[in-house]
Write a structure and sequence with these properties.
Layout (H helix, E strand, L loop, with lengths): L1 E6 L3 E2 L12 E10 L2 E2 L6 E2 L6 E11 L4 E11 L2 H13 L6 H12 L3 H11 L6 H16 L2
Parallel strand pairs: 1-7
Antiparallel strand pairs: 2-5, 3-4, 3-6, 6-7
Length: about 150
């Protein structure tokens, strides 16, 4: 089942509700995986930490009688100018961009859709006023948008 497409500036929190009216759910046997990595139920996942594209969330559960069932949810992550703007704000608030002037300059470049200058500034500030991790996410998204032009 395809669940939808989400901007990578959003977070998701997979919530799993299980029921079995006969033998009961064996909650110790429930697993949740996202792209083959196990995750804990209720864990918030910042979508920018996932590669852009298709993702598979799989829930496998068993009942006390040993029967097993699986539900698969496929969703897409994408980006946009608005998503990049939200990420710049998020990274500034988290301290990953530690200079207000640089954050404002990046937002200005996004407002005028000047992605080439945005990329240049992020590259120049990576490891300085923009953490290498944040720069990696911003550059990935900007390069994706540039490739779509």
């Amino acid at each position: 089942m395809v669940y939808g497409t989400f901007n990578d500036s959003l977070d998701i929190t997979p919530t799993v509700t299980l029921s079995d009216s006969l033998s009961g759910v064996d909650s110790g046997m429930t697993t949740v995986t996202l792209d083959t990595y196990g995750i804990r139920q209720g864990t918030t996942i910042p979508l920018y930490t996932l590669p852009l594209g298709s993702h598979t969330l799989i829930v496998t559960a068993s009942d006390m009688a040993g029967n097993t069932g699986t539900q698969t949810v496929i969703f897409q992550t994408t980006t946009s100018i608005e998503s990049l703007q939200a990420l710049v704000t998020r990274f500034k608030n988290a301290g990953w961009i530690d200079n207000e002037g640089i954050a404002n300059s990046l937002q200005s470049k996004l407002t005028t859709i000047n992605l080439a200058d945005f990329v240049s500034e992020v590259q120049a500030q990576s490891g300085k006023h923009i953490s290498s991790q944040a720069a990696g996410y911003l550059l990935r998204d900007a390069q994706y948008l540039l490739s779509k032009k």
